[in-house]
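Model it.
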Amino acid sequence: MKLAASSWSVHRALEDGKMTQQDFILKCSREWHLDGVELLDRHFPRPTKNYLRELKRICTCEGLTISCIAVSNDFGKPTAAERRDEVDKVRKWIEAAAFLGAPVIRVFAGSAQERPEQIRPKMVENLRRCSDSGEEAGVILGLENHGGFTQKPEDLLNILREVDSKWLMHVLDTGNYGDHSYDSIEKTLPEAVHVHAKVIKLDGLDYGRIMTLLRKYKYQGFLSVEYEGKGEEVGETSRAIAMLRGHLRQ
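Modeled.
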């Protein structure tokens, strides 16, 4: 397994202008000595070809893999036009990921506030369309357990089964299953291509237990630290990385 950090870990600093995306990348390589970096779509200041080209150069020179681009789409939008826009958004980021050499993009199923039973089949079809685009580009889509249509592990597994594409896999967020985290993690872990190691406080989730599950199912991908607490982001992310690094050495 390899360690990465998600830019969500420092989202307040990025969104307040106290840190740039490139500052975050350099911190991942030079201070935290990570193997990879996960970048959220909203943290790209301008996803132009020139900007992406420079970003790719920096990551290559720093020895960092862009492990995942996290796309914040919603296929539960109420109108067909809105859902088409969401498909276009995902396809745009598939192209960007292919250019950057990122093997995975994170996607959401979304959440339908109205008529969920009618919108769900359309969500599945849109995931299928995007998976076809991912296959053409050589980029795997990872469906995150993120509430809404993926509230329970069975919900997520049913979606994967219905889409039926080896280019749609799973981004496992260790903190998004609520009170039944460990049993739920074990149910969807075999489908995981990328893992968000969620940390709200260091003594929250039992990462010794989670690491046992990861090893049981021979997970070999990235553990992407996703600090989501209210503390000072850089310091708490540093401590979370050190904690996970300790577990990896055991």
